[in-house]
């Protein structure tokens, strides 16, 4: 396939740096996104010949693609980044994204299945797998069209595990990298997948020159799966790398001191009450984030350590995630139920034990970060977990971090955190007690060390390190 725009650097991901909404007058409103990838790509500078390939995720996106004639989106909508959005058939995208990526691959890598009942990898699964293949093929073909001779292509995440091999077949001249933002399942769990599907996923990623992960643990698990499924000594030539994405300290500290954050801090202080300690969590209601056990641990703290009653408030921001999937709607409802049960059982006229918010508000999240005495990050399993890195960076007085050993961030932050087994509710309650009992000086010292480790590889450096390792 011939190149149409001859980009020297390409990024591919399901979600791009911009989304569109069709207004009542028929015009389009562009909304720019954030996150590590957006920050990272900005590091290569506007003069670099780069293109971001992503999927159209809604009707507004699809209309924007139509108006752009299937080509690059208007530069004024994308902060100058060159973006090609793919109008993949909505049913194909739904099957690939919800049916396979989020309902199978996410569950495998985060080890979330109740195995007596699931997964059921039947004919419907095979039908959806064909959509996942088609979705990956659409990306591979677009990348092949956009890439200059010998260009560097960085393909992102579990949505696009097959694309490296497909792209390699179309354009053997390219330097291809794949980055996994999730954990990687150990072989025994990965092999829940049918043997041919497991092999196709692995060989898909092995189509890249370099496969990279957030921690050495996930990289080793991938290699172990390759040996278990494909056989030892795979002659793929794929290099394995590790890049632990860090927090963007400059952006976070500046953003956390804007007037809208100050307003939300005042509102939160009023909800918490004068002189009380705070335990803060900020998460999506994602099954792997373990919000319910975190609430149960807080309930156990109040039950076993009554001296903390009326002296501490759990600020729990649980922003709805993937509500088009029933299991996620049920989980969000359970978070609400447990929070209400704690408030009903322990609350007093002057004290609400759990302040729960389920509407996403970034400024309010930053306000909570600044107020945090203790940050609770207890995922069942997490590729990294940037909240664990962001709270110590933003906290005004310094915070203690109660951290799951199953978070990727544990590799970098474990030494200065209070580490927990995410399934152990009693142990987590005791960790919260220990964290609340730290002196202000010790809390500040721990927070300083945590912030230094958390910002060791900010998004721009993280992206450039991958690019350098691929092209060097």
Strand residues, percent: 15-25%
- Trace the largest sheet across and list its strands: 5-4-1-6-7-8-9
Helix content: 40-55%
Q: How many strand elements?
A: 15
Total of helices: 18
Q: Uncertain spans, ≥5 residues at pLDDT below 50?
A: none
Task: Describe the fold and architecture.
This protein is an alpha/beta fold and 472 residues long. It is built from 18 helices and 15 strands. The protein has helices spanning 36-42, 59-67, 90-109, 123-146, 163-170, 187-190, 195-205, 216-230, 249-255, 259-272, 291-304, 326-346, 362-371, 386-394, 410-413, 425-436, 440-454, 459-471; strands at 7-12, 18-22, 28-32, 50-55, 83-86, 147-156, 175-180, 210-213, 239-242, 277-284, 312-319, 354-357, 374-377, 400-404, 418-420. Helix 1 (36-42) packs across helix 18 (459-471), helix 3 packs across helix 4 (123-146) and helix 11 (291-304) crosses helix 16 (425-436). It is globular.
Which tags fit this structure?
single chain, 472 residues, alpha/beta, 7-stranded parallel β-sheet, 6-stranded parallel β-sheet, 15 strands, 17% strand
């Amino acid at each position: 396939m011939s190149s149409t725009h001859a980009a020297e650097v390409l990024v591919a991901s399901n979600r791009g740096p911009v989304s569109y909404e069709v207004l009542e007058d028929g015009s389009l409103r562009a909304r720019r996104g954030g996150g590590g990838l957006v920050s990272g790509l900005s590091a290569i500078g506007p003069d670099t010949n780069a293109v971001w390939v992503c999927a159209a995720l809604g009707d507004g996106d699809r209309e924007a693609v139509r108006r752009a004639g299937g080509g690059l989106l208007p530069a004024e909508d994308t902060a100058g980044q060159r973006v090609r959005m793919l109008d993949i058939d909505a049913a194909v995208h739904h099957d690939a994204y919800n049916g396979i990526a989020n309902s199978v691959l996410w569950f495998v890598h985060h080890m979330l299945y109740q195995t007596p009942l699931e997964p059921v990898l039947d004919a419907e699964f095979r039908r959806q797998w064909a959509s996942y293949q088609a979705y990956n093929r659409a990306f591979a073909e677009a990348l092949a069209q956009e890439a200059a001779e010998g260009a560097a292509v960085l393909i992102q995440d579990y949505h696009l595990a097959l694309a490296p091999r497909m792209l390699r077949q179309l354009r053997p001249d390219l330097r291809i990298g794949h980055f996994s933002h999730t954990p990687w399942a150990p072989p025994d769990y990965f092999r829940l997948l049918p043997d041919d599907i497991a092999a196709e996923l692995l060989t898909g990623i092995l189509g890249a020159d370099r496969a990279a992960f957030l921690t050495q643990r996930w990289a080793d698990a991938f290699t172990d799966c390759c040996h278990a499924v494909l056989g030892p000594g795979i002659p793929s030539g794929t290099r394995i790398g590790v890049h632990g994405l860090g927090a963007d300290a400059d952006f976070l500290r500046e953003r956390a001191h804007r007037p809208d954050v100050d307003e939300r801090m005042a509102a939160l202080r009023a909800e918490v009450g004068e002189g009380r300690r705070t335990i803060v969590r900020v998460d999506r209601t994602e099954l792997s984030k373990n919000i319910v056990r975190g609430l149960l641990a807080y309930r156990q703290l109040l039950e076993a350590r009554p001296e903390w009653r009326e002296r501490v408030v759990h600020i729990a921001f649980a922003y709805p995630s993937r509500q088009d999937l029933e299991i996620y709607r049920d989980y969000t409802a359970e978070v609400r139920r447990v929070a209400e049960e704690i408030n009903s059982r322990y609350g007093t006229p002057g004290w609400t034990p759990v302040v729960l918010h389920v509407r996403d508000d970034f400024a309010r999240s930053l306000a909570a970060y600044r107020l945090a005495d203790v940050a609770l990050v207890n995922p069942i399993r997490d590729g990294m977990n940037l909240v664990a890195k962001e709270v110590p960076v933003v906290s005004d007085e310094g915070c203690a971090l109660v951290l799951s050993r199953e978070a990727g961030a544990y590799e970098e932050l474990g030494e200065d955190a209070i580490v927990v087994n995410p399934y152990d509710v009693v142990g987590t309650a005791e960790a919260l007690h220990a964290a609340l009992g730290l002196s202000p000086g010790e809390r500040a010292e721990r927070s300083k060390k945590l912030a230094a480790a958390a910002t060791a590889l900010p998004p721009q450096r993280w992206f450039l390190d991958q690019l350098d390792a691929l092209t060097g």
